[in-house]
């Protein structure tokens, strides 16, 4: 059932926003497409200085987390501030609930296979990113994205039972089948922070697990109008995240 019906800045959205602010929420954000604009080269992504300042102010008064598909080491220098927690690799790299060694080792066979296939993948514009806890095959820069995705499908073939794949914006991700996801991460962060609820903002397929599993007293926001999303409300674009942060700063008191 489609639950993505209303803009956050509609009367219904503002009522939900007011309610979450009274519930002592953890604030959790995806990175790419949420805090940082999607760029052609992932290594060029950064948060704007203005947005970083607002996030730093929020992190000083509220439990705040970044929950991203990037590795922790990759995303930290791109933030411009220090959040309470950073969870990377789509939830698999979590300082609170570390993934098992089996989860990481399950990627080793595929890692070797992709290393052998790298020339063929590069020829169609696919770049392999090894993030230890996950593998990402990017095809945003491919001249023919359909051909690039077909080559990825051919090289991945039938995945080992210990692995699972999922898509994203011009990327195919592979993680251990039992690796924690973003929803697992946000639940663990809420518990660790001692919060009553969570506000989570994301924009991509790997954020949908949070939208789907979030209790009714959480507030989930999708950046961009995606009719099939299970987020409760949406923001029209990444630029509206700044407005959201301003409202949070205006309404959330410092924690005692």
TrEMBL record:
Any one Gene Ontology BP term: trehalose biosynthetic process
GO molecular function, one term: metal ion binding
Record EC number: 3.1.3.12
Keyword annotations from UniProtKB, A to Z: Hydrolase, Magnesium, Metal-binding
Range of residues in the leader sequence: none
Gene3D superfamilies for this protein: HAD superfamily/HAD-like, Trehalose-6-phosphate phosphatase related protein, domain 2
The keyword Magnesium belongs to this UniProt entry's keyword annotation: yes
Catalysed conversion reaction: alpha,alpha-trehalose 6-phosphate + H2O = alpha,alpha-trehalose + phosphate
Pathway entry: Glycan biosynthesis; trehalose biosynthesis
InterPro entries according to UniProt: HAD-like_sf, HAD-SF_hydro_IIB, HAD_sf, OTSB-like, Trehalose_PPase
Cofactor(s) listed in the protein's UniProt record: Mg(2+)
Function of the protein: Removes the phosphate from trehalose 6-phosphate to produce free trehalose.
Similarity comment: Belongs to the trehalose phosphatase family.
Entry protein name: Trehalose 6-phosphate phosphatase
Organism: Rubrivivax gelatinosus (Rhodocyclus gelatinosus)
Organism classification: Bacteria, Pseudomonadati, Pseudomonadota, Betaproteobacteria, Burkholderiales
């Amino acid at each position: 059932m489609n639950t993505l019906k209303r803009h956050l800045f509609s009367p219904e959205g503002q009522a939900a926003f007011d309610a979450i602010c009274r519930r002592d929420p953890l604030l959790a954000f995806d990175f790419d497409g949420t805090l940082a604009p999607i760029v052609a080269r992932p290594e060029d992504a950064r948060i704007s200085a203005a947005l970083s300042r607002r996030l730093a102010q929020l992190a000083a008064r509220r439990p705040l987390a970044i929950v991203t598909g990037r590795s922790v080491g990759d995303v930290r220098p791109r933030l411009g501030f220090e959040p309470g927690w950073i969870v990377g690799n789509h939830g698999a790299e979590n300082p609170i609930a570390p993934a098992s060694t089996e989860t990481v080792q399950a990627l080793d066979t595929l890692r070797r296979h992709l290393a052998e296939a790298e020339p063929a993948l590069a020829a169609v514009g696919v770049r392999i990113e090894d993030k230890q806890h996950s593998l990402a095959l990017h095809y945003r820069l491919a001249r023919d994205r359909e051909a690039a995705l077909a080559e990825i499908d051919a090289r991945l073939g039938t995945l080992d039972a210990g692995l699972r794949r999922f898509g994203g914006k011009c990327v195919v991700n592979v993680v251990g089948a039992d690796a924690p996801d973003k929803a697992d991460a946000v639940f663990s962060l809420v518990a660790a922070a001692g919060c009553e609820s969570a506000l989570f903002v994301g924009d991509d397929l790997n954020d949908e697990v949070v939208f789907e599993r979030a209790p009714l007293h959480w507030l989930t926001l999708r950046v961009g109008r995606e009719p099939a999303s299970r987020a409760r409300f949406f923001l029209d674009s990444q630029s509206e995240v700044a407005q959201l942060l301003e409202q949070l700063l205006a309404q959330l008191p410092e924690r005692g």
